[in-house]
Amino acid sequence: MAEKKSTMYDLEAEKIREKIIIFAVDTGGYTKKEVSLEVQASLDELAELIDTAGGEVVGRLVQNRDKIANDLYLGRGKVEELRNMIYELGATGVCCDDELSPAQLMNLQDALDIKVMDRTMVILDIFAAHAGSYEGKLQVELAQLKFRATRLIGMRDSLSRLGGGIGTRGPGEKKLEIDRRVIRERISRLKAELRTVEAQRMQQRKQRQRSAVPVAGIVGYTNAGKSTLLNAMTGAGVLEEDKLFATLDPTTRNYRLPGGQNILLTDTVGFIRKLPHHLVEAFGSTLEEAKYCDVIIHVVDASDVNWDKNIETVYHTLKQLKIDEKSGKPIITVFNKVDKIEKDDLVGVRDLRADRTIYVSAKNGQGLDELASAIEEILRNQKIYIRHTFAYSDAGLTGLIHKYGEIKTEEYLDDGIFIEAYVPSSILGRLGLGFEDEEEY
Hints:
The protein is of the alpha/beta class. Helix content is 42%, strand content 19%. The chain is built from 15 helices and 13 strands. It has helices at residues 2-15, 37-53, 76-89, 102-112, 119-130, 134-149, 152-160, 173-176, 180-211, 226-234, 277-282, 284-287, 307-320, 368-381, 395-404; strands spanning 18-26, 55-64, 93-96, 115-118, 215-220, 251-256, 262-267, 295-301, 331-336, 356-359, 384-390, 406-413, 416-423. Strands 6-7-5-8-9-10 form a six-stranded mixed β-sheet, sandwiched between helices. It has a four-stranded parallel β-sheet with strand order 2-1-3-4, with helices on both faces. A three-stranded antiparallel β-sheet has the order 11-13-12, covered by helices on one side. Helix 4 (102-112) packs parallel to helix 7 and helix 5 (119-130) runs antiparallel to helix 6 (134-149). The longest helix is centred in the middle third of the chain and has 32 residues, at 180-211. The model is unreliable at 1-15, 158-163 and 436-441 (pLDDT under 50).
């Protein structure tokens, strides 16, 4: 009986799966009939986003032209072609690969008489569905309200056609029915709540800095395998799913390096092309975790044909967070999923801007030892090398070195404990050492 109910539920779920036609304008080579590889890749990604949001892409339309139309995004002839596709394919909505202006959104709704969405709406919808923490939910609602505030009139008509679906999660339709004044007040309250949460996060960050435990931040394009890597290294048990933005809330776990030092590994939200600026702003405090890391682990899906463009997207987002060459933040680029491709195909797969490049398979553990050694080496370069004999009355200080440093030699002599080690500069004062006490090679 239980199986029967499950089957009926699955069939019911299948019935409500939205059928979406995706469309875009290719301005890169409008004199040719072919669609550029970049636009194709972007549409493929949009199709994945819609699938993650619970929809199904039933058709695509691309127009080659020199610039996007201000009124309808597409030319009028293409809009008519899109209308015919909607009828032929039985689509319940259409989705643009770019962010539509309020005017474009309303004009397309009037011309097509169907639910109209854009990439930003789909991404916001996925974030609303996947945000689990209190902070994450606040950030998503803030981003959605900011985005929808300028689109209230057009979106109200569009969303009412289907009574919900993709693009309506989070604040929901009820938020679209209230006036702009109330929305502004809600945005102000959300910002105040986020400031409180951000202050708590800053306090936690300061405590980590005082504890001198190094932090390695894991960043990367969405679905590159960041969560899989964190699980493989720490057994964190974070959700792993072959979908875009499967996990949103940052996760931090302890990890012990080969030399015995404990560090913290922090997973962050994935990046994506055309990441809505509302999300970058709203998730600023979460994304800033990478800004305060001692080393950044940049995970790249080596099996993705667009790995090089994904790298550019990540570096662009990091630059928005003021993490670039000027920040001096060391970066280890980890090319993941090498088990999916032939060894010869790795030739030329490089990141020339990274301090180190490692090839791994987080799924089967290949290359993880090399990654751990690379993290250890980079962190060692950030430490101070000391050779010092501690009196037996100060033996407790050696515990600090064991906890936060990397001991190379430890000898018990007549006059005390001789230590040769690499230690964070932040604990030199607690050890009773100054730079004048160091004996560096």
